[in-house]
Amino acid sequence: MHIVFLLEFMLRYILGSIRYHPSILTLANMTVVSNDHSWWPLINASLIGSYFVVAGSVGVMYDWVLTLGQEVELIWRQRWSLMTFLYLSVRYTGIGYAVMYMLDDIPTISMTDVVSLITYDALNCMSDIARAMLGVIMIARLHAMYQRSRKVLIFIVVIFLATKIADAVILAILTMQISGVEYILSGTYQCMIDYAGDSTLLDSMTSMLDTVWEVLTLCLAVWIAVKHFRELRQHSTSGIIGDCFTVLMKTHVSYFASFLAVSCFKYGLLSPTFSTDMYSPDSQIYIGLIQILQMVQMFVLGPRLILGVREYHAKLVANSDTASAMTSIVFEERVHVSTSSSV
Fold it and tell me: What do you get for the CA distance between the two ends of the chain, in Å?
């Protein structure tokens, strides 16, 4: 099997539709061992990619250390709610994901087929769960911003479920269309994967569905924020509600900007110029940046969607006795604070 065979595999891997692991090798039931120097471009590319995986994983854990004090004060010491559960789930799923991703992606680490299968399934499950929880966070934010409108809630829940069900069906189809062969190349562990059927079309459909969901949530958030700001201006009022919408929009825009960056980078992988020089250092740096941005989006900016609003609310309570106006904005929950007031 020639080295060029991996070009399509690397595109599929980065586009996020499926990950590789040694357990897939049972489809081909063979292992190839080689010390041929012609494989070094692939080995070097794999090593460079693992550096970015380690960097992204360390970044996720470093952000957790930086925000641990805020987490204890604003999450653990507060009254539990749906947002508390979602924050802790996304945050600690991210830490587990980072650790397992490093172990799974470093080519010098050997795993048995059983361990690789468990790791692979766990990583995919963690990623899917994290994205679903981030979607629930977005739904809760929009529901609160639209003052608990039932029509808006039904609309966004239907769209969210439709995109997630479609993603699951596409992933199942792609999983049934793959085959692979294990390669042990100069002491490193690789897996060559072949895709049958319309995998390119299915991959693009997955990316498009995710883009539609993120754009929709951003548009709904911007629309209601602009509407509220106009109403406040007409009544010559401002303050708590306006400031809260500002905080919500800042965190939402930061999250969407990271998603937009990841999407643009992914579509850049489809460029013919890129595919002709897949194993160059520049190409590997490009791919590595996508991996880092994906982890930052899900496991750094994702938890900060909640932490940012909680931090603003805590400051508001500390500096003002009028914090009760935040009730419907802070994710429709009641949070006990040391001043004995609650929202």
Answer: 63
Pairwise CA distance, residues 192 & 296, whole Å: 28
In the 8-state DSSP scheme, what is residue 190? E
Q: What is the rounded distance in angstroms from the CA atom of residue 319 to the CA atom of residue 55? A: 39
Tokens of 128: 């899917």
Nearest to 199, CA basis, from 179, 163, 170, 162: 170
Residue pLDDT, tens place only, 289-339:
888 998 999 999 999 989 988 888 787 777 765 444 444 444 444 444 333
Alpha helices of the chain — where are they, by DSSP H?
6-15, 40-66, 68-71, 82-105, 113-145, 150-176, 199-234, 240-268, 272-275, 281-296, 302-319
Q: Let me know: does 210 contact 163? Beta carbons within 8 Å.
A: yes
Cα distance between residue 163 and residue 327, in whole Å: 31
Q: Indicate the pairing of strand 178-185 with strand 188-195.
A: antiparallel
On whether the CB atoms of residues 176 and 202 are closer than 8 A, the answer is: no
Q: What is the DSSP letter of 23?
A: G
- What are the beta bridge partners of residue 342? 336
Per-residue pLDDT tens for 221-264?
888 888 877 877 776 555 555 567 777 788 888 888 888 888 88
Query: Which residue is associated with the tokens 């070009």?
Result: 7
Residues forming a β-bridge with 33: 184
Cα dihedral 252/295/87/58 (nearest 10): -130
Sheet of 31-34, strand order: 31-34, 178-185, 188-195
- Could you tell me the pTM of the whole model? 0.75
Check if the beta carbon of residue 146 is closer than 8 Å to that of residue 48: no
Q: Is the confidence at residue 142, as pLDDT, over 70? A: yes
Tokens of 146: 């639209």
